[in-house]
């Protein structure tokens, strides 16, 4: 597979073309942003961990029949994915109220929701990803009714699976963000899961202590983001070493592991 030119650069990832027009390379950067790009930093090793964690979750989802864009991880920072037309909606899934919803609606932080709540935000940095209703999606043709129904079904299965997967390793899945894309298969258009699922896009709290193991460590200046993401990776069985892993160690360790294969 030959890597071609840069197709798109987002806040945390870069997409490159390949010699196959249906496939692209997704590169995970170390850049972290929050509050609609107002807070920015580079956290060495973050991209490596997100690449591994997202690969793990998406390949597990694939095994339970959730079609997604991941073909394979190429190396520490890159994966080969199917080129899709991204639906311009961020699907936010909440099991526990925290973050923006608590401020917007005056809900107490940590309120456990009776049912998972799906919210829709328009993907627009310029507008600050505004919250929208399903009616807006239909009114402005951002997706069809059929696509939304399909996506909602997939979301509930993804949520069930991920709650169980994280519960098994002592982590509560509080909320997360998903993106979906359209793909032509044998002339028929399909909607599949796209983007990434990682501690950058999920809120993950330790089951016993409620310690935050996700991007809130950056948003709220809690520090120790790499140790937290490493902890998630270790618990999921992706990293096995005992030591307290620094970003540099993560990189070293993984390249050693790769060479041994
Ligand atoms: N999220 C994301 N990207 C975004 C917005 C939200 O990955 O552009 C994730 C976020 O990490 C959290 C969930 O979606 O797990 C809900 O985020 P919320 O709406 O509470 O946003 P915030 O509090 O960050 O403004």
Structure write-up:
The protein is α+β, with helices and mostly antiparallel strands. The chain folds into two domains: 3-84 and 225-260, Phosphorylase Kinase, domain 1, CATH 3.30.200.20; 86-206, D-amino Acid Aminotransferase, Chain A, domain 1, CATH 3.30.470.20. Helix content is 31%, strand content 34%. It is built from seven helices and 14 strands. It has helices at residues 46-63, 100-105, 134-139, 145-167, 216-219, 225-235, 247-260, and strands spanning 3-9, 13-18, 23-28, 31-34, 39-42, 70-73, 78-82, 85-86, 89-97, 111-122, 131-132, 171-185, 188-194, 202-206. Strands 8, 9, 10, 11, 12, 13 and 14 form a seven-stranded antiparallel β-sheet that branches. Bound molecules: uridine-5'-diphosphate. The site of uridine-5'-diphosphate (UDP) has 13 residues, from strand 9, helix 2, strand 12 and strand 14.
Keyword list:
261 residues; alpha+beta; Phosphorylase Kinase, domain 1; D-amino Acid Aminotransferase, Chain A, domain 1; 2 domains; 7-stranded antiparallel β-sheet; 7 helices; 14 strands; globular; disordered C terminus; binds uridine-5'-diphosphate
Mean pLDDT: 93
Number of helices: 7
Report the top-level CATH class of the largest domain: Alpha Beta
Secondary structure: helix percent: 25-40%
CATH topology of the largest domain: D-amino Acid Aminotransferase, Chain A, domain 1
| Percent of residues in beta strands | 25-35%
- From the coordinates shown, what is the CATH architecture of the largest domain? 2-Layer Sandwich
Helix/sheet category: alpha+beta
List the helices and strands in order: EEEEEHEEEEHEEHHEEEHHH
Radius of gyration: 18 Å
Shape: globular
Low-pLDDT sequence parts? 251-261
Bound molecules: uridine-5'-diphosphate
Terminal residue distance: 20 Å
Outline the biggest β-sheet. Answer: 7 strands, antiparallel
Q: Quickly count the domains.
A: 2
Number of strands: 14
Specify the CATH homologous superfamily of the largest domain. Answer: ATP-grasp fold, B domain
